[in-house]
Amino acid sequence: MNRITSFEQYQQEYKHSIETPEAFWAEKAEQFTWQKKWDKVLEWNFDEPTIKWFQGGQLNITENCLDRHLETRGDQTAIIWEPNNPKDEVRKLTYKELHAEVCRFANVLKNNNAQKGDRICIYMPMVPELAIAILACARIGAIHSVVFGGFSYKSVADRIHDAGCNMIITVDSASRGLKEVPFKNIIDDALQICPSVKKVIVYKHTNENVKMVANRDVWWQDEMKKCSSNYPAEIMDAEDMLFILYTSGSTGKPKGVVHTCGGYMVYVDYTFRNVFQYNDKEVFWCTADIGWITGHSYSVYGPLLAGATTLLFEGTPTFPDAGRFWQTIDKHQVNIFYTAPTAIRSLEAAGLDFVKPYKLDSLRVLGSVGEPINEVAWHWYNKYIGKEKCPIVDTWWQTETGGIMISPIAGVTKTKPGFATLPLPGIQPALMDEKGNEIIGNNVEGRLCVKFPWPSIIRTTYGDHNRCKENYFETFKGYYFTGDACKRDEDGYYHITGRVDDVIKVSGHLLGTAEIENAIDMHPDLVESAVVGYQHNIKGYGIYAFVVCGHERKDTDLLIKEIIETVTKNMGAMARPDKIQIVKVLPKTRSGKIMRRILRKIAEGDIHNLGDTSTLLDPSVVEDIKNGAV
Ligand code: WTA
User: Is 502 a domain residue?
Assistant: First the structure.
């Protein structure tokens, strides 16, 4: 398949994609296996919104990820699995083996009454079976909803409930670093409050002793033994749902972002091959967990569509020590390495002694994703990991965009530290001012929007289309609004500066402040809380919680510990506040709105310039909060 190889070609493709988007994307789509060709490339309206790509087309994405490659690369490794403990055995699956496993598991799903259109929740660690489960769902036309293994039983239950899942796929337990995660027990707790679930399929991973509920729970391995490795792919319409993936929003309730079969496939494949300039036989490693969009698009679907070898890593960057990433790169001769700034910053802080023992000479391209990468981290990554020979692609995108939107093309377009640089072909960014007008020209700053659909744009938020409309399409009429602020410099290069809504990026995880507040407020002694982000050297943003206690508690340390436990239980460890300040009252306006602007400043330590506090019901509360800042 062709790809962009020069800057001139990028400019030509970009022009073509803007002037004749339908012809442009039809050419890309032609390269896949379709059971039936589409009747219409695009129909759209951002007011509703309704967006349909390749209408009338029929396909199955797994035929494109697997069957299509069998003849040419059946014996090539599709997945390399690196376990949590580097001493444990590596697993490799060829395309033939992966195809057989996916088909076998598709039969398991069918045998356990899964139907096309059912929602299936997948709650697993990073094992090959997670990729197999996803692909098997897609094979039978069931909609997968993967929930990140760091979420607590309560958050898993909310997501199962929202999507109306009737089946769960999980494991007995798993290790991440030195920590044991009791997956099956967490699911058992979640199911106490999720009556819709009729079946749980458990992959035996650690042999941990777990309780199996009769007529509900079955072992993956036992079921596989009963099934053949033959399963003709279900024929799907291009606009049928492929998956739901929950992301945090401004309210406490997570949004089920919906992606569909045809457009997602075309866009993820196109961006994977172009941004990373993937060459045949190279080893690609995206360190993101498959529980997030990055793992969906660039650990599983993108690489497999392109016939690549993708590395799945079960462990953490610092186990058994902070050299684990670099050791793994040498061990598997990784050519393209894609990770998050938070990981880069923490490994930079660990020091060069963890980098020096490794050659890192297989590396050709480096990538960054999930949050702005600061210049210091960018230079460290470039110098010590890329040895100044590997282009860094700083890729900006979102769960809702499905694939990379603004990014350098490795070795083809220019990089600039801290900049996601230029839009990919097909992407028409726009910066908007507060009044809703588009800002034209360079050297400007505004809210980042996109003014024309691309094939993997969000279609709806599951079960609540209005939420999708309000969230993304109403702030700026006729535009998709990203929620990010952005600068466009004198050369027209984009630099994303961060979120403008009530979500924060903590270690690359997008968390809603309202969702964290809900979890905190579950503590029986608390009346209310307000959470804001503050800049954190390693995590990007840290979580600062202001909490109001219903009655005086003198044992502050114990209370803080209890609050942290409450958050861990109700949301997950990644949402634990870094700082907790107990306050008498929260600063509120006369209409009862919490003045977060003031809390943000206090959390940042910027207490001398709090701005106008005259609209507060009681301006004196600010003094107390300032004095008690932690
Ligand atoms: C942020 C992750 C700066 C941004 C793929 C976006 C970035 C949010 C970058 C989406 C980047 C992602 N530079 N900021 N290269 N990539 N972001 O849905 O704020 O987990 O809106 O998708 O991450 O996070 P999500």
Answer: no
